[in-house]
Sequence to fold (189 residues):
Amino acid sequence: MAGAAGGMTLANVPGTATRPTTDRVKEALFSRLESYDVIHDAVVLDLFAGSGALGAECASRGAARVELVELAEKAAAVCRRNAEMINSVLRRAVVQVHRTGAEGYLARLQEGRHYNLVLIDPPYPLAEDKLAEILALLEPFLAEGSVVVVERSSRSPEPCWPAGLECFSGRKYGETQLWFAEPVLSQHE
Fold:
C-alpha cells in the first residue's frame, strides 16, 4: 500500500470466492489514476469490493471518502476489518462498508450524491447485461470529470456503456482487462 498507510498489510478474503486484483494490475491502475489526478479529495465508490483493498488504497492516497460495497458475508467482514485498520491509521472515518449488492446500493442512492472515482471489479462470470444495468444505474451519480474503472477478464467483451458514459482507454494485463470511462460531458486527456 502507498500513501499515508504505506507498508500496512490488509486482510484477505479466505477461500476462493473472490479474485483479488494482482499487484501488477493494482500498480498500473494507481499509476494511471494518479496521472489523472482523480484520487486526492475524491469521493470513491468501490463496487464488488472483495477485501476492500482498492478502496483502502484510495483512502491511503488521500481520498476524502470511500464507500466499499460488498454482498458476500465473509468478504464484507474482511472489508470491515480493513476499513477499521485504515480509518485508525488515518485517524478519521474515511472508509465505510455497505453489505449489499451493487444494484441494490445504487438503486437506493439519494439524488445529489456524486462520485469522483468508481471502481467496479465484479466476478468474471457476471453477465454482460448485468454489468450494463449497473453502469446505467451508476451514471446519474457521477461527478463532472469523474473516472469509472471496470476490471474484467481479458476474454470478456468491452462493457456496454450507457449513453452518458464513454470509454476513453482500455489496457490488458495478462488475464485482466481494465476499462476506463468518463461522463460524456467531461473532457479527459
Notes: The chain has one domain: 40-183. Strands lie at 43-47, 65-69, 95-98, 115-120, 142-153, 165-173, 176-183. The chain has five helices and seven strands. The domain at 40-183 is CATH 3.40.50.150 (Rossmann fold).
